[in-house]
Task: structure prediction
Amino acid sequence: MFKKLIEESTGKSPWLFHINAGSCNGCDIELVSVLTPRYDAERLGFKLAGSPRHADIVVVTGPVTKQSLPRVLRAISQVPEPRCIVTMGSCPQSGNVFRGSYSVAGPLSKYVHVDVDVAGCAPKPEAVIDGLALAAQILKEKRGQMK
Amino acid sequence: MMDFPFVKEAISQLFSKSSCAMYPAVPSQAAPGYRGRIVYHADKCIACGMCERVCSGNAITRTVEHLEDGQDRITLTFNLGSCTFCATCADFCTRNAIELTGDYHMVATKEEDLLVTGSFIKAAPKKKAPAAAAPEDCQAAPAVKPRDDGKPVNDPARCVYCTLCAKKCPVQALTVDRAAKTWVLDEDKCIACGTCAQACPKNCIIM
Result:
């Protein structure tokens, strides 16, 4: 009985973990605005987790610099399966204007499987909510497959 | 009641409307002037390559496919996953073929979903040349020789008549008509500054 309750509840409240992989801070501010009362993603169950071990969805911003790459991979590996990785903004998808820089190791899809891309520079909070909703859906499917 | 001055406020807030933007339930429009998803009007494009050159994120790629009848199929691909949405491409486009719309729903599970493509067929230059309004210019020798006085000469074989040179000319010495395919230099006005040659995306102006 409790198992079923837990399964239903975890599907309704995916927790986020945010990794800044050398971002310019634009996307980070937009993500914060998604979680604060104006857009309030918490009413949809999205909650920012302090530790990757508590998270279901990983939101990565920034072009994945060489300095941040080992930390990003380490943090992602600490997130328990099933997990969903969301790239936010153009930087983790392609490098954007930082592409070709000596210090950029991205794009992120070279190292881990990326589930959802949210394009924009920076994406509008509504677009981020769309992306997170899609991520939650994918997470639900992944959980169904793991059974 | 004196000890709890906030009780009245708390109860009134319980029954008041939420201050959240109830986004997924209530659709929201982007602010006017918002630069979102790119729309590419391939029918207006002349493939001058200016957008590709000014793009800071290398989001624009142009591929040319040679068709059997001497025509070229030109395809422009805009990768929204690499775009900064700065609209510099749209600003530089002389034909207004690039438009940044207010559509911000750019969420994808595959990278291909974030590509905006458009293609058009460019007629063969040989067939076009005799039909042009200035046949003397167009039938000139393919390699145009530079003039002795340092003033610009146009190579009609490469020119796409985008009018960028005429727009950049500081003394309005150039008259370019795209419809008639003419490139006329007013020699008296020209100061041989070279701005037109620098502005030319096809490098067809020879000084």
In short: DSSP finds five helices and five strands in chain A.
